[in-house]
Amino acid sequence: MGDIFYQPGTGASKHKQVSRRALLGGSLGVAAASLLSACAPGGTASPAPATSEAGVQNFYIPGTEEGPAKNVPQPMMQPNAQSKSLQGARAFLEFWMSAQNYLLLTGDSAPFIQANAAREETKRFADGLSRMYQTGNIWLISESSAPLDLSLEKTAPYEGPEPNSYIWPARVTINQQAYLFNREHPDKPAKLSSVVAKNVSYVYLTYVQNRWMVETTELPSDWKPSKVASF
Question: Is the pTM of the predicted complex or chain greater than 0.70?
Fold first, then answer.
């Protein structure tokens, strides 16, 4: 997904040059309609354990051209993930990234919507990707249960340009072997790295109504790193 997958957000801001975007359908995720188009005509990590309802660990089984992945680790939000603290912000980002990977591998949108529930863009993109999986013809094939990985480049974020906003230098790694398979057009796979936006360098977080939210990976043109955040 290249930059064409960015979608404008709806959040109000005194800094009008900041384009608010949900990451799924933005810098890290998938705009489902575009993915469907990419897979239509014309257009190795160690396995991670997933725990069943019975408490039994099942290891991740990568998808193949016969069917999608199985035993994908389900995202679990830690109790402190909505606390206004350094540890809380880290825990939230961990859940948020896990939820994106889970959505990419299963089409299950519930965890990702939970992570950024206040964003209508999140719901639209997540539901669109779910519909893609529901066709039974298109899924992501990845040897890793985490085809997207977010690395925080600093131990703490910077204070953002608005109250309760934080900007964290970050880097996204995309599994270069992961690809979208379309059973109806098996000769036209779409590499995940070709449909996910690259060059992410910051995560713009806000803390509103006692919860974290990822706003964008773009920055105000007049903002420069200065004060390290204190919580």
Answer: yes
d(CA 180, CA 50) in angstroms, rounded, equals: 22
Residues 6+ apart with CB under 8 A from 54: none
Collapse the DSSP code of 33 into the 3-class scheme (helix H, G, I; strand E, B; otherwise coil) and give the result.
helix
Q: Comparing C-alpha atoms, which of 133, 75, 136, 134 is closest to residue 104?
A: 133
Q: Measure the CA–CA gap between 136 and 116, rounded to whole angstroms.
A: 26
Kindly state the tokens that stand for 50: 């997933």
Interior/surface letters 71-97, b for 16+ CB within 10 angstroms, e for the rest: bbbebebeeebbbeeeebbbbbbbbbb
**Helix residue spans in 61-195 (DSSP H):** 86-106, 110-115, 120-134, 192-195
Residue type, 226: S
> pLDDT tens digit string along 22-46?
333 333 444 444 454 554 444 433 3
Band of the pLDDT at 16, cuts 50, 70, 90? very low
